[in-house]
Design brief:
The chain contains 16 helices and 18 strands. By secondary structure, it is α/β, with parallel strands linked by helices. It folds into three domains: 364 residues, Glycosidases (TIM Barrel); 53 residues, Alpha-Beta Complex (Oligo-1,6-glucosidase, domain 2); 68 residues, Immunoglobulin-like, CATH 2.60.40. Strand 7, helix 7 and strand 8 form a beta-alpha-beta unit. Helix 6 packs parallel to helix 7. The relative contact order is 0.10. The mean pLDDT is 96. The structure holds 1-O-alpha-D-glucopyranosyl-D-fructose. The site of 1-O-alpha-D-glucopyranosyl-D-fructose (TEU) has 11 residues, from loops. One of its GO terms (molecular function) is alpha-amylase activity. This is DUF3459 domain-containing protein. Keywords: Glycosidase, Hydrolase.
């Protein structure tokens, strides 16, 4: 039969480079630091690491504002450090994915410096410029993800430029073939250096409707936080031309063999799944599925969203799941540590490629960031809306026995989790009942059991606090039963229990509070 590509069996681990390991005592993590910690990552049992952006950047949005797509930010190291990191990862059987940020560059990128110099600049059309609208204000009503208009007036050249995010992140004009060619060259540059793929930042944003029509008003916006949700991004995102570009990126990736493209796309299932493309014109391998980030932690909701997503997948489309990132509140902060153990079991037993976020394997919860240490521009621009992301970007706590948890020799750029002296890698490695060991056990089981890695999904029940589903491969059938609540619930324990989130086995037909189990129903005829 067909041999599945590595990323179908694989598990991705997201590293936020600023906060993984500092090797040179500046309070910010770096590539050498990541290299020093690769044994930890390999021992966890994941297959690939994805690095948030490591390119030269003024850091207005902590690397998502790229000033040079084909070099390494000095704060993170050199291109030689990068090559050594790739080699060291590959030696351990780990793939390495980079974060590609095609929608926008930094306003300090030489392309934009040239573009804004004058209306007649050679690279004027590499970005998106427009004259004022009829009322003399911005060309249309589009709103930035960081608050305010998406358009910034440029006094010197007498036009507005578009930025879907910060004004320091001008949107590139992907309708321009020279931009496309330059960006495909960027992908080649890193593929040639041995990179195994890309997570593509805000892929659904890269093309905008011609003529820049106003976005329609969102009838539900008053239910949501902030003016960002006031409009439906109909004309500013998800244009048909962007799919053709994704297909071109895929052709390029495929020309290198077994490389992976993960697209960051926030859309409802039907439009999300369109980004798989089809057999004749495949697009990204994995359009990120954020359903577990965007929905309530509730058995019925989850049962339904898994079924809906499975039903929306195109033939051959491989699923994926994620519940944490450098943008989202941490899973343990959202649902508490006891349920975060159940969530780990869910994420690592659903059908599809899971992406883990650094630190979630330690159960890090809410980290209070004192007002004077807030760094995230999304929070600084719109205080009080709860849009901050710093609290999921805090440094990895490696040990309770060294200053700054072994992350750095100096005060880190963001504070550590308040409980770092007890909640850290060293302590959890020494404690067989820790969250870290639960992740290791789950990842090891996934490797051993084809039903978990590649098997079919079959919903069994989703009611009250109880979520039950099966994973099936050939004659192998595993049942996953999760108690999403804090009260004991009846459950018939047939078969052999392979793993419980509580560590030991119950002696009655129940799921204990906050318990999830994986049972082996044995070979089925
Ligand atoms: O995030 C894009 C993005 O759309 C998120 O801000 C999203 O809107 C939000 O999380 C949904 O609640 C990516 C990066 O992951 C983020 O760190 C960058 O700031 C952003 O793109 C701009 O590059």
């Amino acid at each position: 039969g067909r041999i599945p590509p590595w990323w179908e069996r694989g598990v991705i681990y997201q590293i936020y480079p600023r906060s993984f390991q500092d090797s040179d005592g500046d309070g910010v993590g770096d590539l050498r630091g990541i290299k020093q910690r690769l044994d930890y990552v390999a021992a966890l049992g994941v297959d690939a690491i994805w690095l948030s952006p490591v390119f030269p950047s003024p850091m207005a949005d902590f690397g998502y504002d790229v000033a040079d797509y084909t070099d390494i930010e000095p704060m993170f190291g050199t291109i030689e450090d990068f090559d050594r990191l790739v080699a060291a990862a590959h030696r351990r059987g780990l793939k390495l994915l980079l974060d590609f940020v095609p929608n926008h560059s930094s306003d300090r990128h030489p392309w934009f410096v040239d573009s804004r110099a004058s209306k007649g600049s050679a690279k004027r059309d590499w970005y998106i410029w427009a004259p004022p609208g009829p009322d003399g204000g911005p060309p249309n009503n589009w709103i930035s993800d960081f608050g305010g208009s998406s358009w910034e007036w440029d006094e010197a050249s007498g036009e507005y430029y578009l930025h879907a995010f910060l004004k320091e992140q001008p949107d590139l004009n992907w309708r321009n073939p020279d931009v496309q060619a330059a960006m495909f060259d960027v992908m080649r540059f890193w593929f040639d250096r041995g990179v195994d793929g890309f997570r593509i930042d805000v892929l659904w944003h890269i093309v905008k409707a011609e003529g820049f029509p106003d976005n329609p008003v969102n009838p539900y916006w008053h239910d949501r936080l902030g003016q960002r949700d006031m409009l439906i991004q109909r004309h500013s995102t998800d244009q048909p031309e962007a799919h053709a570009i994704a297909a071109e990126m895929r052709r390029l990736a495929d020309s290198y063999g077994d490389r992976l493209l993960v697209g960051e796309i926030f859309l409802p299932n039907d439009r999300l799944c369109a980004w798989y493309g089809n057999d004749e014109r495949p697009e990204v391998h994995l359009p990120f599925n954020f359903a577990l980030i965007e929905n309530a932690w509730n058995a019925e909701t989850i049962g339904r969203l898994v079924a809906d997503y499975e039903a929306a997948l195109p033939p051959g489309g491989w699923p994926n799941w994620v519940y944490g990132s450098h943008d989202a509140a941490r899973i343990a902060a959202r649902i508490g540590e006891a349920q975060a153990r159940v969530a780990a079991m869910l994420l690592l037993t659903l059908r599809g490629t899971p992406t883990l976020y650094q630190g979630d394997e330690l159960g890090i919860g809410r980290v209070e960031i004192p007002a004077d240490r807030i760094r995230d521009p999304r929070e600084l621009r719109e205080p009080g809306l709860g849009l901050g992301r710093d609290w999921s970007r805090t440094p990895m706590p490696w040990t309770g026995d060294a200053p700054f948890a072994g992350f750095s020799s100096v005060e880190p750029w963001l504070p550590l989790n308040g409980d770092w002296q007890t909640r850290n890698v060293a302590n959890q490695e020494a404690d067989r009942g820790s969250m870290l060991w639960l992740y290791r056990d789950l990842l090891a089981l996934r490797r051993q059991r084809t039903a978990l890695a590649l098997g079919d999904y079959q919903g069994v029940s989703a009611a009250g606090d109880l979520l039950v589903f099966d994973r099936i491969s050939g004659t192998e059938r595993l049942r996953i039963a999760l108690n999403l609540g804090e009260v004991e619930t009846g459950f018939v324990r047939e078969g052999a229990c392979l793993l419980s989130t509580l560590g030991n086995e119950a002696d009655r037909d129940v799921l204990r509070p906050n318990e999830g189990i994986i049972i082996d129903l044995g070979a089925v005829a």
